[in-house]
Design a protein that fits this description.
The structure is a homodimer of 241-residue chains.
Chain A: H1 3-13, H2 29-43, H3 50-56, H4 71-83, H5 95-112, H6 116-119, H7 128-140, H8 148-172, H9 182-192, H10 198-203, H11 210-233
Helix pairs in contact in A: 1-4, 2-3, 2-4, 5-7, 5-8, 5-11, 8-11
The structure holds a DNA duplex (30 and 30 nucleotides).
Chain lengths: 241, 241
DNA sequence: CATTAACTGTGTCCGATGGACACTGTTCAT
DNA sequence: ATGAACAGTGTCCATCGGACACAGTTAATG
């Protein structure tokens, strides 16, 4: 059990390379991942196939299997390379500012590589960079009397929000590899059935720009966290535990 | 453009059936969707193929195409059937209680049908039931001086949180169709590289039960929304606009 | 009642996918 | 120099979604 998972771990966490006997590898994990990212950026994750990646590098499909155990691991490498390094911790800033910058940067990654949304669903092995992003959130919340699980939960909350915003703004974008006008389809649909969706019909005026939408949720979350932090800091001791 | 999208709209929103001339259809959209859901529940969304669905109904693969234009629309039907009806609005309850119940019920749907997480990524046409869920959030926030886009943003925020929690708790479940022990893999990984992830290593004690994790984020979000609502209600008029 | 047009389900075929496996050729350690 | 380890290739396979032509069935029409 977990053979394949361990293979992914070795790829993402293992040593960068080991000198060996035979001919020198003409390819590298980095080049393979970059080729995959190029395809995914241009045509979506669904267009990434072993054939296309190999073709882009002027190699045969099967040669890739010398470097990567399978497609899942290829995608894992692509994700790890595409999320990039997490933003550096700036101790001078407060936790609110740090988390705000974190969320904006993460949203930027999702915008640059929309397929990241598809590639990061479901149980998977996270690479060091992806874990680094998580680390930054938890670290920013250190020293505020939040328990370990609470800090983790806050990170999940923040990441989930950014994901949701990125997904929504991707659907609204008119380019996108798959199709388009889904938002243009949704508007008339809601208004045509305004009797069944009165609140929606009333609320759907202009679709909030995704910057606004990101900031709205972000400020609600941070306000909620701040309330918890100040409550813990020393304020009312009566609020049970 | 949008031909296929319109086909999906017709399937999800169109009339239930129209009496016609030829032989009576032996199948129905409902049965087909149910068969697909059965497979997805048991083996994951990836295991859902036209062949398997047809086989489960003792039909040929191609017969399904008489009912459904393609696999994307099949999945759309499955989603619409699996999310189920949104919780009824209980006017007696406050918005906090309504949204809490909403989030818990949605999380329940994701738990019952983990593949919903995979099926609801990316731009797609939403069915009436899925839209109904959205409607309930927006309706619950009516009458609190929030703008239309703000209420929509709040819905996205809430839905994103539930998604995030569901995804995390799916990864932690030991059954799951694809693989397992990803969380069991993550723990040792973090602690082995505790130098690179000090905050994570400190915070990763016990993985918060998913009930706790859901409620944590939920309360932060609701606190944040409440702060905004009371601020709008009439309090400080000095907070610009 | 006979005809006909519409509709349903099936069989066959296709291109593309991920992957297994055996094979040739290259290179380094001995 | 020789042999083991390794890189890249070619061939093959099951499975996928889907196109298309066809035969069987049924209801509306005369």
């Amino acid at each position: 059990m977990g053979e394949e998972a361990n293979a992914a771990v070795r790829l993402l966490w293992g040593p960068p390379a080991k000198p060996s006997r035979g001919p020198k590898p003409a390819l590298s994990l980095g080049r393979i991942a970059a080729a995959g990212i190029g395809i995914a950026d241009a045509e979506g994750l669904g267009a990434v196939s072993m054939q296309k990646v190999a073709g882009l590098l002027d190699f045969t499909k099967m040669s890739l299997y010398r470097y990567v155990p399978g497609k899942a691991e290829l995608v894992a490498l692509m994700v790890e390379a595409a999320v990039g390094e997490p933003p550096a911790a700036v101790d001078a800033l407060g936790w609110r500012e740090q988390l705000t910058a974190w969320a904006r940067q993460l949203e930027g990654s999702f915008t640059r590589h929309p397929w990241l949304l598809d590639a990061t669903v479901g149980p998977r092995v996270m690479g060091p960079k992806e874990l680094g992003w998580l680390e930054r959130v938890v670290a920013a919340l250190d020293g505020h009397r939040l328990t370990g699980p609470e800090r983790m939960d806050a990170a999940v909350l923040l990441a989930g929000h950014v994901r949701g915003i990125a997904e929504q703004s991707r659907a609204a974008r008119p380019d996108s590899p798959p199709e388009a006008e889904f938002l243009a389809l949704l508007g008339p649909l809601v208004h045509r059935h305004a009797d069944r969706f009165p609140a929606l019909a009333a609320a759907m005026t202009a679709p909030d720009g995704h910057d606004r939408a990101l900031d709205f949720g972000l400020e609600r979350i941070l306000d909620g966290l701040e309330a918890l932090i100040t409550r813990r800091a020393g304020g009312a001791r009566g609020a049970g535990l």
